[in-house]
């Protein structure tokens, strides 16, 4: 984070029900927080892209459209990075273990879907999955990603990450 950017007063924290239509309100709140935290537009677009994929996977595959599920989204700017964490109580599932799809197959031979997590892997600067969260009872899914915000280091979704 550059010195001319404001330092965030507090981390972002919002809980949502497991509805796809809850995403727009989440993005509005996160965007307001990001602007006050000095997150530039290209980095914010990447954060929203990653968040969209992870959020929709939790709603569709984790909760299976159960409207009573909760998804907690937390974000902070730390050491020049946006750090975003999604926590849910859906059945345990580590998205980092999903294998890369075989994109060498002809289009008609490929299964439908399966390209979102590779996009997340390529766009995020770091990914971590865990099954515990401070102050929460029982196992939970907790996926955290980081996006580098330092000048000259932010990448778009079209440039591969150098390391994970």
List keywords for this structure.
3 helices, 22% strand, alpha+beta, disordered C terminus, 164 residues, Heat Shock Protein 90, 5-stranded antiparallel sheet
What would you say this structure looks like, in words?
This protein has 164 residues and is α+β, with helices and mostly antiparallel strands. The protein has a single domain (12-148), classed as Histidine kinase-like ATPase, C-terminal domain (Heat Shock Protein 90, 2-Layer Sandwich). The protein is 27% helix and 22% strand. The chain has 3 helices and 5 strands, in the order βααββαββ. The protein has helices at residues 23-36, 41-62, 116-123, and strands spanning 12-17, 70-78, 81-88, 126-130, 141-148. Strands 1-2-3-5-4 form a 5-stranded antiparallel β-sheet, with helices on one face. Helix 1 (23-36) packs antiparallel against helix 2 (41-62) and helix 2 runs antiparallel to helix 3.
Write the layout of secondary structure elements.
Elements: E1 12-17, H1 23-36, H2 41-62, E2 70-78, E3 81-88, H3 116-123, E4 126-130, E5 141-148
Antiparallel strand pairs: 1-2, 2-3, 3-5, 4-5
Helix pairs in contact: 1-2, 2-3
